[in-house]
């Protein structure tokens, strides 16, 4: 169903761009006519007779139209075709360095799923607004473990690159997939615990809702269980006020997952804030795949 929807969407969006390209001159003439009509209405309404003012008004409208149209087209192209991203951290060194600029394919994942080793661009689940660039190393339904700096997938040793188990420890994580049963199990009634410690419960809840990264500090020993197996965090649900309220009073949350999840890791394992710390990435959060570095000029090329 998703493939059909995006197929129709991209068909008409691409037709729209082709139409603009082919009819560029005709559209420009129509804009000129409408602009002149609009200027005439303004000059009549405010009794503007000065020719310089009329010319200035026309020129101003022309620049507003040109800049506005360009901005809209750039936003649409970046969101749906080719993304342009600046890398703010060193989590993907040496593959991608701080300050590098990359183009990302924003189309493919509308029709196919991310594959292992793809460098994905996604909206991280904690602040729920920052775009991260990491490598998809674990796929839906797989079991992963990091031991002696080696990543194991379904018990099989891999030789991709070195990974630290900080954040995971000795645990084996099962990566959730669509249809799995998720339980979020609190360690107890956090409200009572904070009340006895003379904390303001309302403030604690407010802090959590404003900054989900505090989840494991304010709600220690929170467990995530998928199909009966304890696994890594799934923090998307922490942004839900009703779920937060229930967890705070010690209620277990039970959910049937409606999306696939991925394990995202940075190549610079000792300096990467990734799935080892904030858990799995929901597929719907993934925006695209980083493909080409175009800045700095001396390092232009594919990123892989």
Automatic annotation (TrEMBL):
**Where are its TM segments located?**
6-22, 61-82
Q: What class of enzyme is it?
A: hydrolase
Enumerate the UniProt keywords alphabetically: Hydrolase, Membrane, Protease, Transmembrane, Transmembrane helix
For membrane topology, the record states: Single-pass type II membrane protein
Q: Which Pfam families match?
A: Peptidase_S26 (PF10502)
Q: What's the chief localization of this chain?
A: membrane
State the active site.
91, 134
Q: What is its EC number?
A: 3.4.21.89
Superkingdom of this protein's organism:
Bacteria
Where in the cell is the protein located?
Membrane
What is the reaction catalyzed?
Cleavage of hydrophobic, N-terminal signal or leader sequences from secreted and periplasmic proteins
> Which example biological process does GO assign this protein?
signal peptide processing
Listed GO cellular component terms? Answer: membrane
Q: Which InterPro entries match?
A: LexA/Signal_pep-like_sf, Pept_S26A_signal_pept_1, Pept_S26A_signal_pept_1_Lys-AS, Peptidase_S26
Q: Which residues form the Peptidase S26 domain?
A: 63-295
In the record, what terms sit under GO molecular function? serine-type endopeptidase activity; signal peptidase activity
UniProt similarity note? Belongs to the peptidase S26 family.
> Which protein are we looking at?
Signal peptidase I
Query: Which species?
Result: Fusobacterium hwasookii ChDC F174
